[in-house]
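May I ask for a single protein's sequence together with how it folds?
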Amino acid sequence: MTSSSTWINQISELKNNSKIKSRTCKTYVKHPEKEICQCGRLKPSHSYTTLHHLDLNERTDINVKWNEGRDSSSVPINVYGIRPSNGPKFIRCDNRTKPLSLYNLILNDCKKQEPTLLISAYGGAKYFTLSERLEKDFVTGIIDLATRA
């Protein structure tokens, strides 16, 4: 079994066991100054594939601030894979995921050898906003730098 199929199998098993979840915005709360949700994503970028289309609410009162607890929900992992450029693996998980669950995932993937480099990226609209193309280029750049280090 190749490393890539092992990674995909591990994620599939985690999806079935619900040990690691992802998080997605379920309420479109229009930003007061921009044509985006207060979560930082464009309306079409909300998780229609993860949530039933009817479950995506739209709040028109712009005086109400977006709140992670109220306006997002935990969902099965839906963003993971292996970068085609040079093979680094990635997973987008809920920020409430227990670190031990992620550590065990990494150890299993590394055949119980501790990795020498881990990168965690956390951010959102309150930090900065990038176009989808720039975001992909940014992530690709970080991964390429990390794999050369």
